[in-house]
């Protein structure tokens, strides 16, 4: 079966699935951190579904990328914002698609520059395989087998609706 | 010609020599990136690993503790290795010797030069002769340009006013000798500011002021009327001598920014100064330390803007 012919679950279904996994782990010392840009959308949708007023932060990993010396600075860097004290905090790191694991490596380094968290756990909407780092998510919406030349991206319409888009790399 | 030197063939920033000739797209990219670095400066750990292992040489042929320090802090917060060199220009014959200095530093595996020189065009000259992997940042050359100061001023205006498209901005003081003023005018014009005024005595305006696209005023009351931003320039004391100005007191009386004169600007106008200030000459302490002053914010933003410039250059 070619991977792209698989019926793709909707982001909404996966967010509901993630929320079910997450709700037993909630607590007062938990904070959500979304990675720009898709991870932030997922975080906001999750927080709404969980109905809890959890502290939320956003990370842009541009200053910590491991391919800076090859491709330079991303043309659109967004400010990171961690509006809570990182010290002894349980952090739930959230991203849309987990692939090589390099983004998560960079994101963890940033978190430590804000302080020493008690723990970091990882929630992703989609794990598409292809890991290059020893990183394993704690909460996963769906596992997808994608070919090497395929990319899956989360997109957001103007009305805020989320959808997946599969691109073929040239 | 000299401006093409700043861009790579595919239009990315290679050297920062002057704001003249840089497209709005690049200025905006620098300002956006700087906004992210402002957030970094507020963290527990103020550095990021972006320029780890890169060597930044601050070569200052003209003294400027303040500018050199901000570049040094910026490079260190990017995790670069920083070397500061103060080279007394008077002990050098210019031209070949300048390039010899640069060739020697290049042989020490420099990745970036930050250059301050009393002669206009010094940074351009160096940029033309460095190895392809090296970037040059002009930290002030003669009366010509001081692009990072211009950029931090643009950042400050955007931070407090949001956008350039409805702003009236007045630049006040010694425009003739000011490299800062030229960079400010280029920055404002490129970013879409519809009305840039300069307010100065005739003797402190360059002859080509008509070509700069600014409105010229010789009177503070008229010039400041309804402006959103007042950018003061430093009056250099050595220029008091000779026929240009009668005295510091006389200058203060006509062009020094006082609370009373500031009332002609909009009530929410911000007051800027590139520093170091001559209190009681171009600006009164009551204004410099007053609620409309954003002079210290400029200093903080200056570090973030220089981090942005260095990281964009190092990546291109």
Describe this structure in words.
The complex is a heterodimer of chains A (170) and B (316). Chain A is of the alpha/beta class and 170 residues long. Chain A is built from 4 helices and 7 strands, in the order H-E-H-E-H-E-H-E-E-E-E. In chain A, strand 1, helix 2 (38-50) and strand 2 (56-59) form a beta-alpha-beta unit. The longest helix of chain A is centred in the N-terminal third of the chain and has 13 residues, at 38-50. Chain A is globular and about 45 Å long. The model of chain A has no long low-confidence stretch (mean pLDDT 92). In chain B, helix 1 (24-41) packs across helix 5 (147-161) and helix 2 packs across helix 11 (295-315). The mean pLDDT of chain B is 92. Chain B has helices spanning 24-41, 65-77, 96-107, 122-129, 147-161, 179-190, 220-224, 248-255, 259-262, 285-288, 295-315; strands at residues 55-60, 81-86, 112-117, 135-141, 168-172, 195-199, 215-217, 229-232, 270-272. In chain B, the strands form 2 sheets. Chain B has a 5-stranded parallel beta sheet. Chain B has 316 residues and is an alpha/beta fold. The A-B interface holds A 60, 62-64, 68-69, 71-73, 75-82, 86, 109, 112-115 and B 12, 29, 32-33, 35-36, 38-40, 43-45, 47-50, 311-312, 314-316.
